UniProtKB/TrEMBL annotation:
Organism: Vermiconidia calcicola
The organism's place on the tree of life at top rank: Eukaryota
Protein's name according to its UniProt entry: Uncharacterized protein
Amino acid sequence: SDSPTYSIACIPADGIGTEVIDAGVKVLKTLSEASNSFQLEFEDYDWSSATYLETGKYIPDGGLENLKKHNAILFGAVGDPKVPDHISLWGLRLAICQPFQQYANVRPTKVFRGTKSPLRNCNTGDLDWVIIRENSEGEYAGQGGRSHRGFPWETCTEVSIFTRHCVERLIRFAFETAQKRPKKHLTVVTKSNAMRNGMVMWDEVALELAKEFPDVKMDKMLVDAMTCRMVLQPNSIDTIVATNLHADILSDLAAALAGSIGIAPTSNLDPTRQHPSMFEPIHGSAFDIAGKGVANPVGTFWSAAEMMRWLGEEAAADRLLECMENVCGAGVLTRDLGGSAGTEEVTNAVCDEIRKSY
Ligand code: NAI
Ligand code: MG
């Protein structure tokens, strides 16, 4: 047939990562078979903390070159009690995001049917936000040092890096994202009162770019005030752009406000499309529930839907979201959402819903 084929690299990695990626692949295969309009090929990469403990490397030599041949990457979660978190994060996730210039980290939220916000006045469809996080530099640029280890005069620096090039490309992407949404509203979040260099440049770049997007309404907030606004005036928010650290924190808050960390997705995008982009649930490897078959796979399904959207399969993406929401709405929910279903039950229910929908 002449329908397109997409090659997907799967990196389940650690803990519940393997469980939710299995579930995600199953749902994607069902979607591609039922739609009969595109094919998916999956290749598994066993890069994980187990391979690190065995070989000293998360990514084997030449590994990144191999990854480049895929159209997209579906990632689980990395983190293991036997490996310090900064080693696992830098060894695998950042080791892909940074060289692949996946500079835009996109995190949508929404209160789904069947899920409940802890905010008293929030209903289904509310908290329809997109948070755009700088994903290549800032506070997580890895600059700094540590001297006199263990002595009382031990000294550390953790230097934030803000370059006009990276700030501009990210805020431009945020304006473009806001422009495509009905409300056309972008909130630029900084901390430009206390941080008087890089953050002030952020504000300036945002103001300059605003001129190119006259149809987008822009406002700016300090990050501390933004946490209050997210809780107290959630309906005044649409698209948010912030630094690597700030948006990391704000997006966890957003996920919690929307009902559970188990449903939130993340896209690590290279908007230039020179490298494959990477899609993953927002949550970590959750060792406390790993191996029990109770992990919520919905965050991975939503991530898979965003992956299909990025690949140009808009209709399939929307259908997957719809099916996922139908299943949640019908009360087939994992424990984190107050239900009693396991990963497999939710996955099978979404697959059935997909088949029924065609
Ligand atoms: P976590 O997201 O793994 O877990 C936080 C809490 O949420 C736990 O109680 C967990 O059971 C629950 N939870 C998370 N995902 C869930 C799901 N799909 N269904 C049901 N419940 C879920 O965060 P935590 O505990 O801070 O980190 C654990 C490990 O994961 C650490 O090693 C950390 O570095 C790593 N991590 C990795 C990330 C990634 O690979 N992108 C992101 C966040 C953390
Ligand atoms: Mg985080």
